[in-house]
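Reading a protein record of the kind used here takes only a little practice. These numbers are not coordinates but entries in a learned vocabulary of local backbone shapes. Here is one such record, which you should read through line by line.
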Amino acid sequence: MAEKRTIDPAVIEILEKAEAEGISTAFDRAETTRPCPIGHDGNCCKHCFMGPCRLTGKTTVGICGATLETIQARNLARSIAAGAAAHSDHGRDMAHTLIAAAIGEAPDYRIKDEKKLRGVAKHLDVETEGRTKEEIAIEVGKKALAEFGRQEGELLYVRRAPPKRQELWRKLGITPRGIDREIVETLHRTHAGTDQDPEHILIHSLRTALGDGWGGSMLSTDISDILFGTPVPVAARSNFGILREDSVNVVVHGHEPTLSEMIVVAAGDPELNEYAKSKGAKGINLVGICCTANEILMRQGIPVIGNFLSQELAIVTGAIDAMVVDIQCVMQGIQAASEHFHTKIITTSPKAMITGATHIEFDEHRALEIAKQIIKAAIDNFPNRKKEKVHIPDVVDHLVAGFSHEYIAYMQGGVYRESFRPLNDAVIQGRIRGGAGVVGCNNPRVPQDDAHIEIVKELIRNDVLVLTTGCNAIACAKQGLLTPEVMDYAGPGLREICQTIGVPPVLHVGSCVDNSRILTILTQMVTEGGLGDDISDLPAVGIAPEWMSEKALSIGTYFVASGVYTIFGIGSPVAGSEEITRMISQGWEEKVGGKLEFEPDWRKIVEKALAHIDAKRAALKLEEYSPTRYTRSTAYFPGDYTSVEEFKQGSYTRSLIS
């Protein structure tokens, strides 16, 4: 049974342990809790108390007269707005922290990347000449905060998009005015009795999502880089085997780097490590889950246990002394799982608490002090661990992470000649067929990581360079796909380019909020020239194989609004309406050059992605892609593989483990 739920051997091992001990996990609940077929297809409205209205059978409109199309547009718009709010609120918190650090009220933080600070200052019209980095940072932080409450004009970061894309947004009236304004207007428009034209509602959804992608999320990424350093490649390890039986195991889980960066510092504190030894441990072992893991992985090289669906299972190992969580993608089920073991769940955000968990509220003004308090709580819990309950799968994969868009430019030319010219030339010549951003969540309705891995394998096999973030990045890490050794499974052209530059064919570019890095990479490719004059001209796609969250819908929508063909797996939240399905695919493509489609079959996702890339190459009048143009493709493929396990038995995996 466990083998049908995931492709991760470590997860299979722990799922069997959970089942034997009668511990419920998300995998179990996905089987026993079936989705409502009416709501699953988007045919239910619960925005007022005359309902909920279920449009099924002979019922074709709600009590207020709302049509199925209006109801579905409202539902989708609200989900996009919620996703935009989540990531943008993250950006707001980063701006507050930047100001506090610059004025000395958050003394444990400092500006680590002054070059990035000055670059961001330019985007925000902040004068830098003759000013200290602290003075610049204060104004950058204030300008960033002003973008959230802006009521008129345009977000300043919109100017970072290609000029043709900016013109299109203005023509359509979807240039975001203020991050918060567009989110609030979505809620107003979708209130009962307000906007009742589905196309009008959906057009505003594009505007709301753009405020996230080219506003809140992009600001969050930039300010994180300023405070904690712009990522560069770092080697690390992943999966359950990184846990230690003889050490205090602390898991950080969530999304905010302000907390996790300080936890890293506290975990390395000599006094706390001595204190851990006094409790019988050899030291402190810090690991990550989900996007907090990605944040400290790409900057500090901290190992990662797993992605979204691994959080309860980490506790089931019996080896976790504290799981420290903040916001987003944290299951309430971790508390129930912890009650079977000694694990202490510690919530830290003023925005998010869990009934039954310990709450130690994090305050950036006393960051290190609180981080040490959290680590001490984990150490004090170590003696409560029951050795007979500990089971750590002996599974470890190696990886390379941390490819910021700045580093991708640097790696193609060095300090003095950094450029996207080599990448563009490789695409023009057909050595690289195109690019794909493969991102997104886990969803227990399908086998964990299966579609993530199969899609990425087939793309690189077909000479498509993959950029990955979030849970897809961790899935790739756990299967050895973030290493140069995987080059043997890449197509010949992609392999040649990656070997020349010295990078894997799958580039880890960050957490889910860092999808904005992909936007800047696409923009830099357009600016470099030779591949059209807009993002929509590029032979590139976006894919979310296992989406589940509202954040994913916001991300997908801002990619579409930026001109990218975007494909989601699992299923569609608007499956009940052919008209809404047409509006967000064909309709949006006619307006903004990008479209949103839902396709549950990963094989068809790959087919659609490659067909789109080839169509864009043809439109640019590039040579038709041929896998045999530069070398014999068969020389690089040791044979067809039919399963992930067969793929993992390849030489690259054996060499890493040895």
User: Anything to note?
Assistant: Residues 68-102 form the longest helix (35 residues). The radius of gyration is 24 Å. Residues 2-54 form one domain. The chain has four domains: 2-54, 68-228, 240-389, 397-657.
